[in-house]
Amino acid sequence: MLATLKRLLPMAEKVVDRRSPLSILKTLCLENKTARVTDLESTLVVPIDNGMSACLPLDLLRKLLKSKPTNLQIEPSGSRLVLVHDGRRLSFKGLQTGDFPEIPSGKFKEIGKWPQELFGELLLQSRFTSTDDLKPSLQGVHLVQIGNELETQATDSHLLRFRRGLKISAGKPFEGTLPVKPLQLLARIARGNTTVSATNDHLRFSLPGEITLYVRLISEKYPDVASVIPKAFTGSAVVNREELLALVKAAMPFADRETNLMMLEMGEGSAIITVEDQQVETKWEATLKLSEQQGGTLRIGFNLKLLERLLSLQQSPTVLWQFTNASSASMFTEIGEQWHSGAKTILMPIRIKEEKTHDNQERDHRQTAAA
Predict the structure, then answer these.
(1) CATH of the domain at 178
(2) Which of 157, 122, 171, 112 is nearest to 143 (CA)?
(3) Distances (CA, A) of 99 to 29, 30, 91, 286
(4) Domain limits at 235?
(5) Is 361 a domain residue?
(6) 220 with 113, same domain?
(7) From CA 195, how far away is CA 16, in angstroms rounded?
(8) Does 368 reside within a domain?
(9) Cα distances (Å, whole numbers) of residue 194 to 23, 141, 189
(10) Whether 168 and 219 share a structural domain
(11) What pLDDT digit, counting tens, does each position of 338-353 carry?
């Protein structure tokens, strides 16, 4: 039992919600030769040799294991339970296993075997999901599985990250939205190919060591994000991600606090980045190197904070920036010999108001004088 608890508690920490008002959800349930924990959305189940039935408070188990016991026995004592360890006794009032939530039931059908790398990708994708409780459909990673390929999507309604063509084995059609919380545990303990099964409401992951994780899918309908993904682009350029990110961070203190507007005007082999704050009449400028340019010139506005978040969450040293015009979405794709993810992130621009700036007025004056 001691070995099981040492193995299970670190995983249980990723499942149990310590903020829950329900005491039963803060326990480890021993029943039918299994140990399980749940937050009602995810349920972790591990087989054990002990056939007793009991609900053990997780906070007591944490405290006990800190003393590094060499042995542990669980004994009933009337309406209480006793944890006997190294000649010491810890007694407490046990909760009823009948009050603990059941393991999700239903006819689970295998939908495929997912490689270990996929769970790392899903964890990265989760950083683009929403934390807004008013947008429950956006609080997970959406999965669309067709044959042996999987497409993933995640958005907070400001940034959209997606990947296509992720390879799986023995795949069958599936679509659903996986919540964020269990992805950290899955990325940590998945090994090799994980067998995934589904009902209309849950996914079941059969993991190494006879560990089983049940996850309730998000029931709210995921939005049709395909409509905001451009089908084609008229221009592109490759940029150094770290260089652009450094410029974005440097520009931030000088931006308009309401709009966070950054202007980017492309030239041949470079782009001028401009940030203005009309209230204090400041103008900040820098030059960004571009390579592999295609298509025409462009003058476009971006929200600095969104662009900083996009670049911070991407992984590759360089990104391919694709665009059409100043009013349509841009796409930033991770590229590089060691970056095979090809993850794509969509960012909408800020509409630019054409105003008579001081520079424009001088240019118009020169054009009038020349005429």
Answers:
(1) 3.10.150.10
(2) 122
(3) 10, 12, 20, 63
(4) 230-356
(5) no
(6) yes
(7) 23
(8) no
(9) 32, 18, 10
(10) yes
(11) 766 789 999 999 987 6
State how far the Cα of 171 lies from the Cα of 133, in Å rounded to an integer. Answer: 32
Classify burial at 191, counting beta carbons within 10 Å of its beta carbon; exposed 0-12, middle 13-18, buried 19 or more.
exposed
Which among 316, 194, 152 is positioned nearest to 244, based on CA atoms? 316
Both 94 and 167 in a single domain?
no
- Would you call 184 helix, strand, or coil by DSSP? helix
Contact (CB, 8 A) for 69 and 63 = no
Domain termination site, one of 185, 204, 226: 226
pLDDT of residue 18: 86
Taking Cα atoms as reference points, which of 274, 255, 277 lies closest to residue 266? 274
How many domains does the structure of the chain reveal?
3
Put the strands of the sheet holding 291-294 in their side by side order: 174-179, 140-146, 149-155, 159-167, 344-347, 330-335, 318-323, 235-240, 291-294
Residue 64 lies in a domain: yes
Per-residue pLDDT tens over the stretch 196-221: 999 999 999 999 889 999 999 999 99
How many helices (H) and strands (E) the chain has is answered by 7, 24
Take residue 321 and report the two structure tokens written for it.
Answer: 């920036």
The pair of structure tokens assigned to 172 is 């069958």
Which residue is listed with tokens 């298509």? Answer: 295
Residues 58 and 113 in one domain: no
Asked which of 47, 66, 99 is the last residue of a domain, the reply is: 99
